Amino acid sequence: MGFQGWNAFLARFDVWGTPLDTRSSKHTHLDLMGTYYYLIRAIYKTVPNRDARHITKILMRKLSASFSIDNTTIHLDGLPSAEKADEHLRRYHLKSNALHRAAAMVEHCETAAARGEGLEGAPATALKLISDCRSIPKPVGERILANLEKKGWNVCYCRGEADVCIARQPDIEQCAVVSADSDLFLHSRVQELLRPNPHNKSQLLVFHKDDLLERLGLTESQLMVLAVVSRSDYTVNVRGYGLARNHKLIRTLSPLLPTSSRLISNRKQKSHWERVLEESESILDQYFEHVDTADEDQFVNAINIFWYQKETLLPKRKAGFQRRSFNPDAWALEARLQKARATLEVRRATLELEAAMASMSVSPNQPQRLRRDRKQDGTPRRRREDLSRI
Fold first, then answer.
1. Which of 135, 161, 13 is nearest to 75 (CA)?
2. Which of 113, 152, 297, 334 has its CA 20 to 30 A from that of 216?
3. Residue of 19, 32, 21, 22 whose CA lies nearest to 153
4. Number of CB atoms found within 10 A of residue 152's CB
5. Which residue intervals of 219-260 are DSSP H helices?
6. Which residues have C-beta within 8 Å of that of residue 155, sequence separation ≥ 6?
7. How do 28-31 and 200-208 pair as beta strands?
8. Cβ contacts of residue 36 below 8 Å, gap of 6+?
9. What is the pLDDT of residue 185?
10. Is 179 left (phi over 0), alpha (psi -120 to 50) or beta?
11. How many angstroms separate the CA atoms of 103 and 125, rounded?
C-alpha cells in the first residue's frame, strides 16, 4: 500500500510523473502483486475454476505492451517479514470486520427478499464488503509466476517482501522499478519508479528521484528521514506529525558535518551512500530533539527496511493468520446474495402475475356495463348483434 496520503502530498507540489510512451530501455524490476494485485484479484474472481493460465494470458498482454521480455525481472513476495507484522495484522482485522458486516448485510437482504421488500442499495454495499474480504492465495501467485517463466520471462521468487528484494539488487541504481506502492520509491538506492496511472490503468507514469527532490526542496538524506518518520507499512508516525508537517520540519534540518581535518579526510574516503547514511542519522537525531514525543524505537523497522534493506522473516507457523484466506466465506456470502436477489425477482414476478390475473376477473366494484358484457365466470359475453348473424 505504501505511505498514507502520499499521492495527495505529491499533488500539492505538482509531482504527477511523465507518461511512458515507449518501452523502457533500462533493465526493469517489477513487483507483480504490487503492480497488478487488483487486476489479478478481479480476474481470479471471474475465471472459471480459478485457472491461473487464463490470468497469465491477460497479464502477458499487459506486460508485453510496456516491457521487454529480455530486460524485465518479475518479483513475487515470499514469507512475510517481522517488520511488517503489524500491518499484516491490521489488514487481517479489516478483512474480518468487512466479512462480519457483509454477513449482516446479506442476512438483511435475505429477510427483505422473503418479505418481497425492496433491497435498494444493500446488495451493492454487500458486494463491496465481500470484495474487500477477497485476496489472492499464495499458490495462485506462484502458478502465475511459473507460467510466466515458461513463457520466457525472468522471474524471482523472493525469500521475503518483494520491495525489499528489489531494493537490494546490486544494479538497482541503473534500473527502473515498477510498482503501484509508493514506499518502494523511498528506498535509499531506488532512482526511477514506474507507477500505473490511477486515472488510466493502461498507462505508466515515470518518476525520477532527482525531479522529486527538486520539487520537494529536499536532499537525499532529508528524503530518507522523511521516509522513516512518516506512516507506512512498517511504522506509524508521531501523533500530529503527518507527511506535510514532517516535510516542513525536515526541510529546516541540515546534517552536522565534521569540522576537524582528520574527520573530513575520513569522510572523503567513504562512498556516496555511506555519506548519505551518515547525514541521515544526523538529521534524524535533530528530528528527535524537535519532536519530544517521538520514540526512537518505533522507527527501527523503517530504518532497517528503507536504509539498509534488512528484514527478519517470519516462519510459516507464525505467519498463518497473516496468510489466512477469507475467500471461501466471501464466495458463500456472494452465492447467498445472488439467491436473495433471485428470490426477490421471483416474488415480484409472482405478485405482478397475481395482479394481472386479478384485473381480468369480475369484481362487484366494476361498472354495471362491464359486468353485463361478461359471463359469470368472467369470460366475454357475445353481443346480440353477433348472435343474430348465426
1. 161
2. 297
3. 32
4. 8
5. 220-229, 243-250
6. 73, 74, 75, 76, 145, 146, 148, 149
7. unpaired
8. 59, 62
9. 83
10. beta
11. 11
Q: Which residues of the chain have pLDDT under 70?
A: 1, 47-50, 257-269, 316-324, 361-390
Rg (CA), the chain: 31
Cell numbers standing for residue 51: 485457472
| Rounded distance between C-alpha atoms, residue 380 and residue 247, angstroms | 85
Dump strand ranges (E) for 77-172: 154-157
Sheet holding 18-19, edge to edge: 18-19, 200-208, 192-197, 176-178, 28-31, 72-76, 154-157
Which residues, 6 or more positions from 341, have their beta carbon under 8 angstroms from its beta carbon?
109, 113, 119, 123
Q: E strands of the chain, at which residues? A: 18-19, 28-31, 72-76, 154-157, 176-178, 192-197, 200-208
130 neighbors 102 (Cβ within 8 angstroms): yes
For the chain, what's the residue count?
390
What the block records as the C-alpha cell of 310 is 534488512
